[in-house]
Amino acid sequence: MKKIPAPLLLLSLLTFLFSACHPQEAQLPTETVAAPTPTEEPMAVRVNGTGITIAEFQNEQWRLKDAQAATGEELDEEEQVNLVLTELVGQVLLAQSASSEGYFVDDATLQTHIDELIAQAGGAEQFMSWLQTNHYDETGFRQTLRRQLAAAWMRDKIVSGVPTTAAQVHARQILVSDRATADSIYQQLQAGTDFATLANQYDALTGGDLGWFPRGYLYVQAVEDAAFGLSAGQYSTVIESDYGFHIIQVIERNESQPLSADALHVLQEKAVQDWIDAHWASSTIEVLV
Q: Measuring CA to CA, how many Å separate 163 from each of 40, 167, 248, 260?
C-alpha cells in the first residue's frame, strides 16, 4: 500500500470528516500534488556519469592540507586541486572497471572493514572522533571506503600482470657536478684508465654501482637509455641531467633477470598509472571546479 505523505493524509482525513457531517453536499475534486523532485548535490567532477560532489572534493582537499602540514610539504592551490582531481578520478575509473568485471563491495564486506577500523581505533567513540578529525561524516566515509575497496581490487588485478623478471642491465656511473671535470674523466677513460678505478675515486662508498635495473626504473631517462644502448664493458659519453654530469658503464646484461623488490614495486606503480592514463583518455570526464 502506498504511504500517503503526512500533509496529504491530514487533508484526506479532513475531507472525509467534512463529507460525513454534510452528506447532502457533493465533494469537491481533490487536486493531485506532485512529489518534489530531489535536487542534485553540486558536483565537482563527473567520470563517465558518476559524480563526485563538491563537498567530497573539498574534504579531500582538507585531508591533503592536513597531510602537508604534518610533513612540511607545501603546494599551491592549483597543485592541490590537480592532485585531488587526479586521485579521485583515478579511484573512480578503477572502481568502475572493477564493477564492469563483476566485483562489488556488498554491505557485509563493507561493514567487516569498518568493524576492523573501529577495533584498530580502540572503539566506536575513538573511531567517530577519527572521522571528524579527518573531515568525514559516517555516510561519506562509507561511500569513500566502498569506492576505495573496489579500486584496490582493480589495482591488484593490474599489478598481478606485471612479470617478476625483465630485461635488465647491471651498471655503474661516475657522477660529478661540473662539465669540465666530466670531460676530463672521459678523456682519461679514452686514454685507457680503468672505469672502476675512476668510479671509486668519485664514490668511495659504492664505486658508483647502480645495481641491476629494468627500463622504467631510473629517474633520468637519458641515463637509462644510454645504459640499455651499451654492451657489457662499454661506457657512454658525458650525459647532462638535473643531478649533474654522468658517465655510465654497463657491467653485465640479462634478458630475464629477476626484479628486485624495489624495481618490481616501481614497475607495478607504473603499470597502474599507465592503465589510468589510458582509461582517462578514453573516458568522458567533466571537471566542474
A: 45, 11, 27, 12
